[in-house]
From TrEMBL:
One of the Pfam families matching this protein, by short name: Phage_GPD
Source superkingdom: Bacteria
Native species: Pseudomonas amygdali pv. mori str. 301020
Stated name of the protein: Rhs element Vgr protein
Alphabetical list of InterPro entries matching this protein: T6SS_Vgr_RhsGE (IPR006533), Vgr_OB-fold_dom_sf (IPR037026)
Length: 221
């Protein structure tokens, strides 16, 4: 991977360099949990959870809980793989770097080593290696004008050692049609209703082993 130095734009350059460098930290969820549903094994929803490896200080580790499509994972090992992939998509947004440069060879997926930066030079070689995520190029031509030609770009990157996963965007949930659920109630009750004659059900995405946790009251048509 090539080395690109951090250098002021106020002086004459003999080689392409990074002229501006900024770091950004965003708090992310500290845990990811998923489960699936198999109508042949309604009690075995294969719940899998995993904490994030991001170091975010002494903050609450809020959880992302997602119920995947039916039969999304048939084993605990497959579920761990899915959770790890989703966690990596969250963790990659935890710390990013942006900057400006005159490096015309930059493109997404390109890696480089940052040199001569007052902060990163004190770290390890691994921490000075970066992966470009986006690059926005801007160039000007001096044809038929007296202005000087020039080139610059804006870029976003992460440390190369961080596995890159594209952020997962989840659309707002919708109900396309009827949904199935399991009727629940106190042990020994054949049909259990409340004072409004509603039954108690647990949808396949709801968590909870004891009543009334993870249940919903529904009117019966």
């Amino acid at each position: 991977q090539p080395s690109i130095r951090y250098h002021s734009a106020s002086v004459t350059e003999t080689a392409d360099s990074i002229t501006e460098w900024r770091s950004h930290r965003r708090l992310q969820s500290g845990r990811m949990s998923i489960q699936t549903f198999d109508y042949k094994q309604p009690r075995n929803q294969l719940p899998v959870g995993m904490p994030s490896l991001n170091e975010q200080g002494n903050v609450d580790a809020y959880e992302v809980y997602d119920v995947l499509d039916h039969y999304s994972h048939g084993t605990f090992k497959d579920g761990e793989r899915l959770v790890r992939q989703r966690l990596e998509a969250i963790e990659v947004q935890g710390k990013t770097f942006t900057g400006n440069s005159t490096c015309r060879a930059m493109y997404p997926g390109h890696t480089f080593e940052l040199t001569q930066h007052f902060d990163h030079d004190r770290g390890s070689a691994e921490d000075r290696s970066f992966l470009l995520i986006t690059v926005k190029h801007e160039g000007s031509n001096n044809y038929l004008s007296d202005e000087a030609a020039g080139y610059t770009n804006e870029f976003v990157c992460i440390r190369h050692k961080i596995p890159y996963r594209h952020p997962i965007t989840v659309p707002r949930p919708s109900i396309p049609g009827p949904l199935s659920a399991i009727v629940v109630g106190p042990e020994g009750e054949e049909v259990f209703t409340d004072e409004l004659a509603r039954i108690q059900v647990r949808f396949h995405w709801q968590r909870g082993d004891s009543l009334p946790q993870g249940t919903t009251w529904l009117r019966v048509a």
